[in-house]
Amino acid sequence: MSDFLLPLTVSLDRVEAVIIGGGNVAERKAGKLLEAKAVVTVVAPELSRELERLWKENRITWKEKTGGPEDLRTAWLIVSASGDKAAQQMIAEHKHPWQLVNGADNPSIGNVAFPASFMEDGVQISVSSGSNKPASVKEWKHYLQRVIKKR
Description:
Blueprint: E1 16-20, H1 24-35, E2 39-43, H2 49-56, E3 61-63, E4 77-80, H3 85-94, E5 100-102, E6 116-120, E7 123-127, H4 134-150
Parallel strand pairs: 1-2, 1-4, 2-3, 4-5
Antiparallel strand pairs: 6-7
Organism: Marinococcus halophilus
Enzyme class: oxidoreductase
Pathway: Porphyrin-containing compound metabolism; siroheme biosynthesis; sirohydrochlorin from precorrin-2: step 1/1
């Protein structure tokens, strides 16, 4: 992924998003995508408790298997969150140029990052470093939240 990412706010309302992986990272990404009203499919042999709850509530679709190229075909946004090198390689080899890819478990395969963000008085505030300094981004987010709350 490039060192420079264009800050961009995008509507994901009814957009197909696929997450390869079913653990804690996938859970966090699914939460953000559902908040943005995306149509979320998780492809993983197993799900975290929270993802399983979302599946039972029909808030996400679950394909109980290892991800393959067929799972990527119609997704506008792909999230790599399995931690599995074979899955990461599959995504890197089979993604289309028009697809957005978040390499949550391997930033080098991605072309988009999820910023740390929060809402205050109807304004969304986001902080991002691409994906090379997540701890610093988290610190900046918390700092900005404290500063803005004091005003």
